[in-house]
Write a structure and sequence with these properties.
Strands 1-2-3-4-5-7-6 form a 7-stranded mixed beta sheet, sandwiched between helices. The protein has a single domain (2-144), classed as Gcn5-related N-acetyltransferase (GNAT) (Aminopeptidase). A hairpin with a 4-residue loop joins β2 (41-46) and β3 (51-59). α1 (9-19) crosses α2 (29-37). It is of the alpha+beta class. It is globular, with a radius of gyration of 14 Å. Helix content is 30%, strand content 32%.
Length: 145
């Protein structure tokens, strides 16, 4: 695992395109460029872009919290533990940043991801109707660090 930087923009764009559609919240080039330059955002990549995780730091004035903004594993490399390793790296980075709670969202129909998150200590907190488009609900998750 390593932290991605601006030179990784094209490879991250390609990974995103392999994993997501526009309806899934596919990042565009401008968004990725901004995220790679932001001190409040971190991208971690596995191997030769077999997977990546995007993390955001936030605060509500009292508590620091982090958001798992994207977790992408190339379809050709799924079920090899890449997502777990990316999340372990994410947990460590958030703890270094003083984050107390990690938040995420997942498609309600993505049962494999929901099982993974539950196995790693995430709690399903709230249903988000039409979060991923009309008729596709999301589930809000959180995990104490």
């Amino acid at each position: 695992m390593r932290r991605a930087g601006p030179a990784d923009l094209d490879d991250l764009m390609a990974l995103e395109a392999r994993c997501f559609s526009a309806a899934d919240g596919l990042f565009n080039r401008r968004q990725l460029r901004y995220q790679l330059a932001s001190p409040r955002c971190a991208w971690f990549v596995a191997g030769r872009f077999e997977g990546a995780a995007c993390l955001l730091l936030a605060s509500n004035g009292r508590d620091r919290w982090g958001r798992l903004y994207s977790l992408a594993v190339d379809p050709a490399h799924r079920n090899k533990g890449i997502a777990k390793r990316l999340l372990a790296t994410s947990f460590a980075w958030f703890q270094e940043q003083g984050v107390q709670v990690m938040r995420a969202e997942v498609k309600s129909t993505n049962l494999a991801a929901r099982r993974l998150y539950a196995d790693l200590g995430f709690v399903e907190h709230e249903e988000l109707p039409n979060y991923y488009g009309l008729g596709t609900s999301g589930i809000k998750l959180y995990r104490r660090m």
